[in-house]
């Protein structure tokens, strides 16, 4: 479904020079599979996600979505397929208008993708993320962290995307709430045939949801493969250190 080859993205530093956030990264994601991107803070995970979402343009390399150029310079060529891909950002709902209730947030997301936004469809959507209909009338700020993350996932799903990218979906949540969100993501992915990219600094989190993993360090991929193989037999010393830190 998604193929990236030789992606590079650098940013200028204020006093000259540049930081290479993503450096020669190649990866593939098959339809209906879940790919984890793991690495420490500053390793380039969010930048890579933005490149995969075509929210940012690479300096070099390309992303193909269903075999077609996705990170193309021509925005018009991309627009018809933009709704197929949705992001659940690191700080969900932070940019949402605080006056809006959950119902309006879900409705806006659905209608922006030309999807039906009847109340019963929204109630059904909330049920999919294991929330009751009473949440529709609530404002995000009055919800718990776990409820907000579920609403953020529902908001992305309202557009009926084929690919969901989740940036650190559980890092702000305590462990028991984390387990519920990860289980939900896995369930949505298998039941809806959703393709998923999950970004985390924690390989144990990725392992609960993903089939494959890409390990990043300083913008580069140091290791990639089936998550169980990487977990059981990490080939790179950095992956071993990452594993030890999480255990
Ligand atoms: N818009 C930007 N302008 C300048 N530098 C940036 C920008 N975005 C990212 N960077 C730099 O690129 C590098 C990679 O950042 P990125 O946010 O992709 O890492 P990350 O692995 O997602 O980190 P974290 O887990 O802390 O979110 C960092 O050195 C960061 O400072």
Task: Describe this entry's structure for a reader.
The chain has helices at residues 45-52, 75-82, 102-112, 119-128, 145-157, 175-192, 203-209, 227-232, 237-246; strands spanning 2-12, 18-29, 34-39, 60-65, 68-69, 85-88, 163-167, 195-200, 212-217, 220-226. With 247 residues, the protein is an alpha/beta fold. The protein folds into two domains: 2-84 and 162-246, Rossmann fold, CATH 3.40.50; 95-161, no CATH class. The strands form two sheets. A six-stranded mixed sheet has the order 6-7-8-3-9-10, sandwiched between helices. Helix 3 runs parallel beside helix 5 (145-157). The radius of gyration is 18 Å and the shape is globular. The two termini are 33 Å apart. The chain binds adenosine-5'-triphosphate. This is ABC transporter domain-containing protein.
Brief characterization of the structure:
This protein is an alpha/beta fold. Helix content is 37%, strand content 26%.
Descriptive keywords:
247 residues, binds adenosine-5'-triphosphate, Rossmann fold, single chain, 6-stranded mixed beta sheet, 10 strands, alpha/beta, 4-stranded antiparallel beta sheet
